[in-house]
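Model: You mentioned two targets. I'll fold them one after the other.
Researcher: Yes, keep them separate.
Model: Target one:
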Amino acid sequence: MKSKTNAKRPKGRTPGTGSDKLFKVLIVILAIVLVIMLMILGYGLRHSRYIYTSTPNEILMTIRNGHYETALSDVKYNIANGETISENADYAMPYALMDYYEAESLYVGYSKAAANATDETEKAQLEEKASAYLSQMEDAKSRAGELAFMTEDMDKVFN
């Protein structure tokens, strides 16, 4: 006959040892630290952004290479992001050159439209706008300072 050994199992929980309690406390502390770190990461991701603006030298290099449209776009983007002449005086000359280019493009457009206009009142209005842009060109050229010679290359684009 075989005898059965009935091993008695304890009912309920066994009393925890000191190391078990320490382990549980450590788990809780690490969980809290993890939650705090995730909150910091979320805050950092939410408030992080990088705005690229062109430096005055980069704009001048683009102008020198004859990429006036790109330089004008860079200037508009810089101004929209707070890079104004009042914030940084180094932008004065590149911005003046791009003001000249923009005014000249509008001057040429209005001058050609006035030349093709058949109505005398329309022609007079177009010529008035063209002369306003011509005065803007002269103002921008005077603000370009020692780089005013670069306006000659811009003039070649429109002639």
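Model: Target two:
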Amino acid sequence: MQSKIRILFSVGLVFASLGAHTARALPLMDRPVPTGAEPVKVFPDDRTPGIYWYVPLSIDPWSRDSRYRSSLYETDDVLSFVFRGQASVDEGILRRVAAGVGTSIDQMVPISYESSRDLICQNFFADDPRVTWIMPKAIGNYLEIVPISLRATGRELVQEIGSQIRSGGLNCAVGVAFKGVSTAYRVEMHADLNRVYDRLETLYGGKFLWWQSEIRALVESLHREGTITIQTLEDATLPPTELARKVQASMEKVTQVIIEQMFVPELKLPNEPMAGRGRAFGMNADYRRSAEKARFSAILQADQVQLRESQLAIRMGLE
């Protein structure tokens, strides 16, 4: 599984990008684009601004030309219906959606299906031996023609099913999956660095030497009392231990930033045990408070390439 991890820091302090990008452009599945009442799902591209991916909500009868048109044969006692449809979106819909997001229809890209399963037709004749169905086991591609055949015997069934096919179609559904990028986890930490510095002066005023372990313990206590806040968002499929490691990593990053902003390395060390304490620091007397430092934030986020499951409706009609 591919992933990309990005760590962002405000206050102009740190910006880093870790890990490889996805091998190819993919839709951002957890950032759907509002489309109003238009019957289409749209997602932005994970890397290129202005590119949008779309997936339809239904498979409708083929209507472009006569090559793949559905056909209905009907007598008083026998009905034979061969449905041919395609998952597609009307060009007018795409143009309206494209205009709504400020791009062109050329920048709208169809999403290909990776797999499909559980094709089910919701009709009233499934258990009737006079009605038989043949359906494909899978819909493997966004652009393929979906064939479904139906045969019914008996005057009453022929009349009822024929009426439904001609007046709008039978309702079916299929489960599909397509590849996209979504957030695996996101850890946000927020702190008022000016307030942190004030606490340092108040709690440890006049303290000559600070050990790295003491600074880390202070960061944890400030988190517990709410001076430093943590917000988390995670994929439910992610192991809890993984998110715990990311929270731990964020704590380390915030500790590093606080050290860089408020301390200076202590070159002259005392003659006392140092094992497990880390490096020694002294308070930075040149720390300057600012509104920007009062809004410090750190974000640790990973985006994960995964399959997203959805469902398509199939309208089995003539047109």
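Researcher: Noted. Anything on target two?
Model: Residues 1-23 have pLDDT under 50 and may be disordered.
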